[in-house]
Specification:
Blueprint: E1 4-7, E2 12-16, E3 20-26, E4 32-39, H1 43-47, E5 83-86, E6 96-107, E7 110-119, E8 124-133, E9 139-147, E10 153-158, E11 161-165, E12 172-177, E13 185-190, E14 194-200, E15 212-216, E16 227-232, E17 238-244, E18 250-256, E19 263-265, E20 270-272, E21 276-281, H2 284-299, E22 311-313, H3 315-318, H4 324-337, E23 341-344, H5 374-382, E24 386-391, E25 395-396, H6 401-405, E26 425-426, H7 432-449, E27 453-456, H8 473-495, E28 500-503, H9 513-516, E29 521-522, H10 530-540, E30 550-553, H11 567-574, E31 578-581, H12 590-612, E32 614-619, E33 627-632, E34 638-645, E35 667-670, E36 676-678, H13 679-684, E37 697-706
Parallel strand pairs: 22-23, 22-31, 23-24, 24-27, 27-28, 28-29, 30-31
Antiparallel strand pairs: 1-2, 2-3, 3-4, 5-10, 6-7, 7-8, 8-9, 9-20, 9-21, 10-19, 11-18, 12-13, 12-15, 14-17, 15-16, 16-21, 17-18, 25-26, 32-33, 33-34, 34-37, 35-36, 35-37
Keywords: Glycosidase, Hydrolase
Domain Glycosyl hydrolase family 36 C-terminal: 627-703
Enzyme class: hydrolase
Length: 710
């Protein structure tokens, strides 16, 4: 199968994946235009979609607002532009002039197309990039802009790509919203006419939205229907604009940055936009999620083949009261549970005893660790666990030696208040000296202490985002900050190949394809209440796989919500991702520790299914009835089902759960009871899980295929 093909007669380019096609062409004005994105087409069939010569453009309408691969600000265009440029003489309009193309296969099973353009008069080169792989239906796109002249220009908007959907009677958008400790709330709602903007202006991906969306014609369900979905690989501010036009089209464009900020591009400089990936499926929202999970495992994560270890984190047990003796005692308890990675959270460094001081002074606290971290780390390793440490390299407390030495290192404007959030300010990672400082102490910390894991946190959004003394600093920093963040992490991992990193930003404030390409897992929320986590994890899993979703079992009443749910329920919710424990084990009873050890051992038996299997959402968290998820190994030999129910109503029938993804001709044995079930019954008629009586009940089901014929 040719992944990229071209028909010179019609000028059609066809990108082919295993089950889908993406087609485009350059029209007679030189503009790159969309033709198709959906079910498989041949090159000849795609040629039928070339529109007839355009009639005279209406003076009231202009060019259609949807249908171009990268709509520009220029000509009779009135829709949302993907590219807005201001040239040195003040001209803002852009006119396409095709220059050439390059089609290549840089790796086996991968193909790339680059369409090259320039402005018809001004010195700006624009190249549209496309990449497809044999093993996924995801199409990757990005844009490269280069100033070929001798004067600076400014990019007021430079999106990665625009995506056009086929005409349908109606469209619905799926996306997530939220806030700190309430991330990932899934919404499915009609696309209104006009423009809908999803964005973060905070300098991070944000808790309040995430740069992905799904669109369907209002008919898709979890198991069937056409879904078009896209996700932006960018960890700073971003924007996505969805358009529903009067002529019945729906399209969207997205990229880095936000309204009001522009990107200067000096002579000879080049800007490469973030990757914008997208996928089409006719198998409903569940198939879209599974396509994303498989893509992230195959093409995003740095070590997808690994099984993530069971982790213990000290934060909820000790807060800022961190010292060697206390951590050694906790580590011993954690090892008894079967924990494999012990992580010391905030409070281990400098003068840190609360959140008002010490941030930025990254040396072990002399009082808590008089001999440094080495004795604790040696004890953790002796107990058979790896050692991890919490860090927040991008932040500083004004009450710190670092800030007293370098007050100019933070984001700020002259004559403006330096707003403190959580008693801290944001270090300007766009500065070379700040990024080099961060890399220096991080690589020394890891090397000197044999650290296996870092929890990289970032606990506040940008404010007073200025860079005094740097020309156009207030515009340059938004992009350069994020690029320097990536460079520091990349250098750190290159120095220490065994190091693993968790991305955290006050919970789920920085989760996206770009940060996941250089970290190993994500912290979805600071809210560890198992009841709330069911819906948070439901939203997270729409795009991101369980392999990346850290989930803790913590104490009750929950520190944030005050809610109490059984230990069994807390473990079952956390087993839906990368299981971790974050409670104060010194307060657990002997019975609780024994139960915890049993659930940790059970999780280890099934984590290969959860972390590397396919996800089926059997029933979402929509009402008081059971909520259930199923994971199945790729060879369909094993399946693992988790079921949770908040508060059953008396007299309400318990629905049978119809399983999915099993070998239809096989039988499966329940690993706990030994009962054997025909797959045809499990998938066609369902099974009613046995849940304990009462509120907050939960259960799990591990099925193993019986080898002999049914």
């Amino acid at each position: 199968m040719s992944l990229i093909s071209f028909a010179p007669a019609s000028g059609v380019w066809l990108l082919s994946t295993a089950r889908t096609s993406y087609a485009l062409r350059i029209d007679d004005t030189g503009a790159p235009c969309h033709l198709a994105w959906g079910p498989r087409l041949t090159l000849a069939a795609a040629g039928e979609l070339v529109p007839p010569p355009a009639a005279e453009i209406s003076s009231f309408e202009g060019r259609p607002a949807a249908g171009e691969e990268l709509p520009v600000d220029g000509g009779a265009r009135y829709g949302a532009p993907s590219l807005r440029v201001r040239f040195a003489d003040g001209t803002r309009a852009f006119e396409w002039q095709p220059v050439g193309h390059r089609a290549s296969e840089p790796a086996s099973g991968t193909a790339e197309l680059a369409l090259e353009f320039r402005d018809r008069h001004y010195p700006l080169a624009v190249t549209l990039h496309y990449r497809v792989h044999e093993d996924t239906d995801v199409v990757e796109r990005w844009t490269v802009l280069r100033n070929t002249g001798r004067e600076p220009l400014a990019l007021a908007r430079a999106d990665s790509a625009a995506w056009t959907l086929p005409p349908r009677d109606d469209y619905r958008i799926s996306h997530v919203t939220g806030q700190w400790s309430a991330e990932g709330v899934l919404h499915r709602e009609p696309v209104p006419h006009g423009e809908t903007v999803l964005t973060s202006r905070r300098g991070i991906t944000s808790h309040h939205a995430n740069p992905w969306l799904m669109l369907d014609a209002g008919e898709a369900t979890e198991d069937r229907g056409e879904v078009w979905s896209a996700a932006l690989a960018w960890s700073g501010s971003w924007h996505v604009t969805v358009q529903r036009t009067p002529d019945g089209r729906t399209a969207f464009t997205g990229g880095a940055g936000h309204d009001g900020a522009s990107l200067p591009l000096g002579p000879g400089e080049e800007y490469v936009t973030p990757r914008y990936a997208a996928v089409y499926t006719d198998g409903g929202f569940g198939a879209a999620s599974r396509a994303w999970h498989a893509y992230i495992l195959a093409h995003v994560l740095p070590h997808p083949e690994e099984l993530r270890p069971v982790l213990f984190n000290s934060w909820e047990a000790t807060g800022f009261e961190v010292d060697e003796a206390g951590q050694k005692a906790l580590a011993a308890r954690a090892a008894e549970l079967g924990v494999e990675l012990y992580v010391v959270d905030d409070g281990w460094y400098g003068g840190r005893r609360d959140d008002t001081a010490g941030l930025g002074d990254w040396e072990p606290a002399a009082k808590g660790f008089p001999d440094g971290l080495t004795p604790l780390i040696e004890e953790v390793h002796r107990l058979g666990m790896r050692f991890g440490l919490w860090v927040e390299p991008e932040m500083v407390n004004p009450d710190s030696d670092l800030y007293r030495a370098h007050p100019d290192w933070v984001l700020h404007f002259p004559h403006r208040t330096r707003t403190e959030l959580r008693h801290q300010l944001v270090l300007n990672f766009a500065r070379d000296d700040v990024a080099e400082w961060a890399y220096g102490w991080l690589t020394r910390l890891v090397a000197d202490n044999g650290i296996d894991f870092l929890k990289w946190d970032m606990n506040r959004a940008f404010s007073e985002a200025g860079w005094p003394g740097r020309e156009n600093g207030e515009d340059v920093l938004w992009t350069r900050y994020t690029h320097h963040l990536y460079e520091v992490i990349d250098r750190l991992r290159a120095d220490h190949p065994g190091l693993r990193i968790e991305t955290c930003s006050g919970g789920g404030g920085r989760v996206d394809l770009a940060i996941l390409s250089r970290t190993d897992q994500a912290w979805p929320s600071d809210n560890t209440d198992a009841a709330d986590r069911v819906s948070i994890q439901h939203g997270f899993g729409q795009i991101y796989p369980a392999r990346t979703m850290a989930a803790w079992v913590t104490d009750v009443p929950n520190q944030l919500t005050g809610r109490s749910v059984p230990l069994r329920y807390r473990f079952h919710v956390a087993m839906a991702g990368v299981l971790a424990v974050g409670g104060d084990l010194a307060r657990w009873t002997a019975a609780e520790r024994a139960q915890g050890a049993e659930w940790v051992a059970e999780y280890k038996k099934v984590r290969h299914i959860v972390q590397h299997g396919t996800l089926h959402r059997l029933r979402g968290p929509v009402d008081d009835a059971p909520c259930a998820v199923q994971y199945t190994t790729m060879d369909r030999r094993e399946a693992f089902v988790l079921v949770w129910q908040r508060a059953p109503r008396h007299g309400t029938p318990r629905p049978a759960l119809r399983l999915a993804g099993l070998d239809p001709t096989a039988r499966y044995r329940d690993a706990r009871t030994g009962a054997v079930h025909h797959a045809s019954v499990l998938t066609g008629y369902g099974i009613t899980p046995e849940l304990p009586a009462g509120d907050w009940s939960s259960t799990s089901l591990h099925l193993i295929r019986v080898d002999e014929e049914a």
